[in-house]
Amino acid sequence: MLEVEGLQKRYKQKTVLENCSLQMKQGEIVGLVGENGAGKSTMLQLLATIMQPTKGEIRLDGLSYKESVKEVRRKIGYVPQDISIWEEFTVEQNMLFFERLSWKKRTQEECRQLCIDMQLTHWKEGVQSLSGGMKRKLNLAISLLHDPILLLLDEPTVGIDLKSKTEIGTYLHSLAKNKGKMIMYTSHDMDEITNVCDRVYSIGKDSFYMDLLQEKGIPVEQLR
Amino acid sequence: MRWMVLTRFRNEWKSIVCWLLLPIVMTLLVMKSVGVWQEETKVPIALVVQEETQLAKQLVDEIVNTELLHVHFMVLDEALHKLEQHELDSVFVIREGYEESVLSNRRNQLIEAYSSNQSFAYQAVVETITSLAQQDVARSKASFVIKQLFVDYGRESEWDYGEIIGKSHERQQNEALLRTSFSYYDKEETSNDSTAPLLQVWGVWTLFAMITTFFLFDWMLKENRPSMRPRWLFTAISFRRYALGMLLFYTAILFSVDVLTAFIFLALFDEAVTIRILLSLYAFRLTVNVLAFLLASVYRQLFMYYVSGIAIALFLIVIGGAILPLDGLMRKWPWIELLSPVQSLLTGSIPIGWLIALSTLLVLWMWKGGKTIA
């Protein structure tokens, strides 16, 4: 379970997030929407331990971010907006490279299966020759190598074709429902959000969907 | 860790090997070009030797051994023809009777010289050859005087002319007649006659070795680019540990190539390879690698890193005396030697100041590297 209480983030004089609270349960997919600059990526980076909050408390499975950051990181999979893979490697080399760096050891076959599960079949192919959608899938697969319980995705489907978007959405859905992962992700595509997510949080003043982040989020049915 | 480093190497071996071999190749090219250029800048003269005596042969040897002259041997007609064609700067004839003139202390018209209206170096060459001939005459005259002194004192049999000339040559070869060392009373000798164990070949090499090292260490930026940084937070091996592993790997592989370079230079340029030189080379390699490593950790943009790396390499080369000799400057300010690890390599010493400073910075980087994020 993820618990966020009274989260605040300030950059010098500018307050990006103010008094944000939320909860996530196992098997839930939560969408984070908001205008550009509203603080979606900041929120994800705070949850991913990349940044420290100015105020507030975050706990994952009862572990405090302040006290047990290293243990918390083992439970988080973060998929950055930029594609973070080695362009000069093949899909196989990328997977095996990050497997060696990972806390959890996996066999080559397990790594390959992870790719196949999300329809990434170009195992021996160089990353440079992959489509944007395939690269995004590899980006996601690498983040799943250490079997995290919380998956944070920063616009994971930006700039890719509809087919790949659907495949990623389907895969995320199966991850949450079959493996009990908590998934939070940001997107500007409301259709995608409503198709994949169970709940939606909206960040930012004058937000199209909500005025401020609400504690329980909007049930996705209201948006459909 | 080893698997990851080897996977990187397997993917990029072509470019890595190119960068590793570039300093050797460029040094060979530069040294070859300088050699050709030096040969081409020598003054072409013709020597027409009409006498086969010992003194004439000695003079010919001395002229041939003059560094700035390119001597061609030919007959007078051919030499004059080439002089007319401006293929030669000047022509010198050692005429028959040269030895006799020297032995009889006749100083004038020992050598016949020809020049054209385009003999730009004629005067300088005449001065050089005349001085060599006059040296023989002076030696001969001195021998006659010494011989006469022995005769005057009735000890004619003790020294003959040949012995005096031989002794004179021996002294000239064994003693630096125009150099002397002096010391103040009760002090160590003030002038240092020791020559640098590594010569200009290493100076040229250091320039290319430093630049290629900076280019080789761009992995620090590529593998820790902003988009990759979050990845390193969710790995069992931190970027800091990975980077230190890569630093060790590159130091090992670069030093192996440096040792190979030392033996290539031994074979091609007769550069000595001793334990001291290898130690100095290792210290230099460590210094340059850690410098490149730390510099790369400061920058975010590859272009700015490359520009800074090249600028630092050039600066260290210049103040290290690899291109312009800094003997005078170093006598005035001996501490200038500490400013460049290049100077340490050229003198076969260890850049202790650099190693201490860089080790401190490396420790700081390791400490700070683990504290930057959350």
From TrEMBL, chain A:
Q: Which residues form the ABC transporter domain?
A: 2-222
Which superkingdom heads the taxonomic lineage of this protein's source? Bacteria
Q: Which SMART domains match?
A: AAA
- State a single Gene Ontology molecular function: ATP binding
Q: Which Pfam families match?
A: ABC_tran (PF00005)
State if Lyase is listed as a keyword: no
Keyword terms of this UniProt record: ATP-binding, Nucleotide-binding, Transport
**Matches recorded under InterPro entries:** AAA+_ATPase (IPR003593), ABC_transporter-like_ATP-bd (IPR003439), ABC_transporter-like_CS (IPR017871), ABC_transporter_ATP-binding (IPR050763), P-loop_NTPase (IPR027417)
Q: Which Gene3D superfamilies match?
A: P-loop containing nucleotide triphosphate hydrolases (3.40.50.300)
Family the entry assigns:
Belongs to the ABC transporter superfamily.
Q: Which PANTHER family match?
A: ABC TRANSPORTER ATP-BINDING PROTEIN, ABC TRANSPORTER ATP-BINDING PROTEIN NATA
- According to UniProt, the name of this protein is ABC-2 type transport system ATP-binding protein
Source species of the chain: Sporosarcina limicola
Automatic annotation (TrEMBL), chain B:
Organism domain of life = Bacteria
GO CC list: membrane
Name the major location. Answer: membrane
Alphabetical list of Gene3D superfamilies matching this protein: abc type-2 transporter like domain (3.40.1710.10)
Record's keyword terms, sorted: Membrane, Transmembrane, Transmembrane helix
Q: What is this protein called?
A: ABC-2 type transport system permease protein
Protein localization: Membrane
Pfam families xrefs = ABC2_membrane_3
- Stored InterPro entries: ABC2_TM (IPR013525)
User: According to Swiss-Prot or TrEMBL, what is its membrane topology?
Assistant: Multi-pass membrane protein
Domain ABC-2 type transporter transmembrane as annotated: residue spans: 14-346
Select a single GO molecular function from the record's annotations and give it.
ABC-type transporter activity
Coiled-coil ranges per the record?
Answer: none
Transmembrane spans? 202-221, 242-269, 275-296, 303-324, 344-367
